[in-house]
């Protein structure tokens, strides 16, 4: 694959990917983000055109670019500084929101708009105008990259152009670090601050903006340092306006082959993809895509896709749950699935395991003294409700107070019963139940002196 096809392909995808974030930020009236994305759009368009026209071997015989290159070289100067200014503006706004010291102006207020435009566009516009003073030739044409600005290698180029990219990148880095510091200090109140300041941001949007700023700074800050150092190495001589703008040299179009594309092309592509992955794949962007598809009549396709996704997700979750439930049931059977025999009563603990619905508690049968007979029979009659499960002998000798433990499926906490007066359970002559033998139901011995007291 040639450099030409690579540049055109990557820049075309980057160009398309920038439109959804641009539409969202336009809707949100986020001026710095709109300006930054606009710079990237312009740079991707120029890279596509330049690669398409001046990438072949005979690029020197191609169009000389008059008119187009006069305009593009100014935009290149502005974009290199403008991207750093826009990122700095975003971090500045995030810092102001988190500080919450003053009432923030509305997004459509004149003060807010003027502040954003001043930070994002004043320096790039000024440098674009000053670049005329620095041009040695009208412009140059490089293979793969097309139109290039050829500036005077003097100290005035450093002062009027190169150092501003480094300054704004440094300021953006400082504000990004301040945002992190304030965020850490107020981390427990960030959600409330974002809501109360009417910033239009939630925690997710705030995090995306901050992450985006850090990534762009990590790209632009080293780039600005490299450009600044390279410019300082080439500084020589003094500046002379007449010598720089000699009439016999001004209309000469310099064409040269650097052998490979200038690295700035890949930086623009990288930043474009970062913009899309951070802002183009969020919940807000996905809702915007859904609304657009429904608007153009593709809502049925979207509904079908959502149904398939939900069905596949449900199937995966169902399989996982079945595996987990099956494993749990097997473990429960291994632990609780044994069968015991107590006093000729076949008793299976699996009937009352934690994995079964047949949870039971131990209750006690009291004498009928002082109680309503109907309510007593409804509540304390184990031989009607539990006769199928347990073969109790109705002729049990229950002692003086006639207490008897039995199994019930429900316990009413309104009828809490003291266990202080419980007696031991005596077996009858048939030997069905005996206090000397172990049973699955615990029995208690009443103190012998309780009646005397």
TrEMBL record:
A Gene Ontology cellular-component term: plasma membrane
GO molecular function: mating-type factor pheromone receptor activity
Keywords: G-protein coupled receptor, Membrane, Pheromone response, Receptor, Transducer, Transmembrane, Transmembrane helix
Localisation: Membrane
Bias-annotated ranges (Basic and acidic residues): 434-453
Membrane topology, record value: Multi-pass membrane protein
Chain segments carrying region Disordered: 428-453
BP-aspect Gene Ontology terms: pheromone-dependent signal transduction involved in conjugation with cellular fusion
Residues annotated as signal peptide: none
TM ranges: 33-53, 117-141, 161-184, 209-229, 265-286
Family recorded in the similarity comment: Belongs to the G-protein coupled receptor 4 family.
Name assigned to this protein: E-Ste3p
Species of origin: Maudiozyma exigua (Yeast)
Lineage: Eukaryota, Fungi, Dikarya, Ascomycota, Saccharomycotina
Gene designation: e-STE3
């Amino acid at each position: 694959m040639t450099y030409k096809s690579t540049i055109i392909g990557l820049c075309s995808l980057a160009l398309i990917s920038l439109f959804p974030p641009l539409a969202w930020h336009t809707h949100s009236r986020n001026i710095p983000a709109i300006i930054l994305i606009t710079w990237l759009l312009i740079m991707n368009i120029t890279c596509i055109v330049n690669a398409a026209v001046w990438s072949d071997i005979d690029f020197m015989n191609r169009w000389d670019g008059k008119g187009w290159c006069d305009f593009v070289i100014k935009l290149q100067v502005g974009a290199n500084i403008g991207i750093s200014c826009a990122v700095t503006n975003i971090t500045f706004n995030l810092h102001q929101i988190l500080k919450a010291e003053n009432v923030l102006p509305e997004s459509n207020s004149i003060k807010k708009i003027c502040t954003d435009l001043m930070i994002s566009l004043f320096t790039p516009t000024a440098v674009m105008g000053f670049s005329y003073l620095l041009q040695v030739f009208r412009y140059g044409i490089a293979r793969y990259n097309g139109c290039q600005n050829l500036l005077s290698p003097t100290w005035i180029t450093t002062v009027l152009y190169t150092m501003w990219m480094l300054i704004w990148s440094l300021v953006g880095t400082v504000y990004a670090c301040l945002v992190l510091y304030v965020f850490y200090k107020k981390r427990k109140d960030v959600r409330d601050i974002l809501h109360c300041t009417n910033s239009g941001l939630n925690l997710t949007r705030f995090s995306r903006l901050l992450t985006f700023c850090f990534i762009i700074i990590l790209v632009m800050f080293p780039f600005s340092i490299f450009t600044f150092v390279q410019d300082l190495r080439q500084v020589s001589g003094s500046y002379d306006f007449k010598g720089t703008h000699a009439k016999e040299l001004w209309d000469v179009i310099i064409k040269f082959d650097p052998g490979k594309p200038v690295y700035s092309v890949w930086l623009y592509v990288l930043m474009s993809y970062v913009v899309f992955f951070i802002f183009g794949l969020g919940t807000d962007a996905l809702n915007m895509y859904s609304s657009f598809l429904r608007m153009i009549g593709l809502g049925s396709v979207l509904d079908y896709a959502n149904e398939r996704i939900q069905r596949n997700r449900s199937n995966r979750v169902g399989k996982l749950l079945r595996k987990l439930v099956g494993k749990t049931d097997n473990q429960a059977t291994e632990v609780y699935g044994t069968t015991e025999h107590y006093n000729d009563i076949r008793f299976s603990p699996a009937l009352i395991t934690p994995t079964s619905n047949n949870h039971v508690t131990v209750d006690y049968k009291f004498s009928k003294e002082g109680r309503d007979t109907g309510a007593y029979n409804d509540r304390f009659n184990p031989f009607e409700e539990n006769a199928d499960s347990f073969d109790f002998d109705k002729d049990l000798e229950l002692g003086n107070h006639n207490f008897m433990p039995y199994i019930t499926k429900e316990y009413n906490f309104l009828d809490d019963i003291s266990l202080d007066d419980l007696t031991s359970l005596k077996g009858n002559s048939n030997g069905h139940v005996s206090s000397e033998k172990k049973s699955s139901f615990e029995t208690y011995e009443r103190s012998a002196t309780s009646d005397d007291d």
